[in-house]
Each structure stands twice: as structure tokens, then as C-alpha cells.
């Protein structure tokens, strides 16, 4: 498993990927999931993959080398949409070649891809490509894509990221998202690849591979945990069964009449002392 995130902002793009692959607890490897297709001054594209490693590597190689009948390749198409089509075509080609043999071995054709970048004067664009070769594009309503083990890192991104977010803030948010995933899932691991791209650069200007010794990421890991604990401790505890006129921190009040769904005691089970006392009080009221 792996975790990759791509973010499209007004200022540019942020890409972050881990590098862990595993086929069991004793077969853990490190393979980088981010590939850059760069012709400085003309185009800069980033491709990140999650899923079956052999499928991912075959697709990446095909994307890098393939030229179609019309002479189109990842290196000369004039729009990011056409680049996404080339990636989708590569996925279908590998599927046609490998899917049947994989299925005979009980292995699903499993791959997810994030593709983003800028070609010439076109705006920055971001796509997610599925295992069928179809794809969708990020818009302002959904300004990021995640692939792989995404659920643990999603809440912070949903709360923080919007198109106006600055690149460095988005990079910080992506690293916090990754840290949450690293803490909760052993199938995601260091080192990380982080690429931050400013619109119009048409080249890689900010890139870093992050390992366990990286000072900033260690600060993120320590500070984020402490800040979460501090915020948690600053939230008031709930108040139970308070008077109806109380309005602060009320989780339940005496006039709510909340009751659980109770399963009736079977006849062979003797009532406990509290239930016997409650029954006695009810009997006294009836008399």
C-alpha cells in the first residue's frame, strides 16, 4: 500500500508520496512512487502511482517511451488533458497485456494514478486516472486527489485546503496528513517525496526527499501531536443529566428522556439489585 496526495491551488501544485510497498509483514520494500516528466521552460508533469507495483512500473515506462500513430507523446502534447489521455491509454494497454494472466493467479488489476503539472502557457491542472484508464480533473470544488491509504490523512485536508491556500501552507498540511497516515497504518512509510510547483515555473524548483532525520518533518510530528493534545484538553467535558435550564456544555438534560434499546432479561436470569429496587419503587407507587 502507499499514500499519495496531489493538490491544485491558485499558486500552483503540491505533490507528496511515500515509498513503502509490501506484500505481507515480512516483505516490505522501498520504491519511489513519484516520477517527473520535465522539459525545463516548456513543461513539468508529475505522475504518482498507488496499487500493484509491477503494473505501476509498466505504465510509467510506457508513458515515458510511447509515441502513438499520430506522433503524440507525453513530451509533445500541448495540453494536460491530452497528457491524461496518454496515461489512460497506457493503463488500458497494460491491462490488455497483463490482466488475464494476473486474474489466473488471483491478482486484481489494481492501480490508481495522480497526474498533474503545466504545459506551456496553459494553467496548472490535476487529474486522477483509474484502473480502467478513465480519469477526472480537479476543480475548485475538489481541489485535491488522494490515492492509496487515504482515509487517515483526509480530515485535515478537508478542513484546511482551498484554492486560495498558499503553497507552503498546503505543503505543511500535506505533511501533517501524511504523518497521520504513517501513525495509523504500517503499510505507509518513509522516505517521502515532496514537490512544490509554482505556476509558470515550468521546471522543478522545490523538491525534497524526507527521511526520519529531516528536521522539519520531525518538528511536524512532534508539534502536531502536542497541539492536538492541547486543543483536546481545552475542550470542556460534557455535562450529564443537567437541569433543563442549563445551556452550557450540555450533553444530556433531565427533560430529554433518552433511553437505550434494552433487551429483555430471559426468565432464567435473576434481576440484579438495581432492577429489583426499581421494580419495588414502581410497585409502591402503584399501591
Give a structural overview.
With 287 residues, the chain is an alpha+beta fold. It is built from six helices and twelve strands. It has a five-stranded antiparallel sheet, covered by helices on one side. Strands 5-6-7-8-9 form a five-stranded antiparallel sheet, covered by helices on one side. Strand 11 and strand 12 form a beta hairpin. Helix 1 packs across helix 2. The longest helix has 25 residues. It is elongated. The mean pLDDT is 92.
* Topology as a string of helices (H) and strands (E): EEEEEEHHEEEEHHEEHH
What ranges have pLDDT less than 50 throughout 5 or more consecutive residues? none
Mean pLDDT, all residues: 92
**What percent of residues adopt helix (DSSP H or I)?**
25-40%
Task: Supply the helix-strand structural class.
Answer: alpha+beta
Rg (CA only): 27 Å
Tally of DSSP β-strands? 12
Global geometry: elongated
Portion of residues in beta strands equals 15-25%
End-to-end separation: 68 Å
Strand order of the largest sheet: 10-1-2-11-12
Major sheet size, sense and barrel closure? 5 strands, antiparallel
Distinct helical segment count: 6
Give the key terms:
alpha+beta, single chain, 5-stranded antiparallel sheet, 287 residues, 34% helix
Summarize the structure.
This protein has 6 helices and 12 strands.
Helix and strand topology:
Layout: E1 3-8, E2 12-17, E3 20-22, E4 28-30, E5 34-39, E6 43-51, H1 53-65, H2 80-104, E7 111-119, E8 125-129, E9 135-137, E10 144-148, H3 154-160, H4 167-184, E11 192-198, E12 206-210, H5 215-234, H6 273-286
Antiparallel strand pairs: 1-2, 1-10, 2-11, 3-4, 5-6, 6-7, 7-8, 8-9, 11-12
Helix pairs in contact: 1-2, 3-4, 4-5
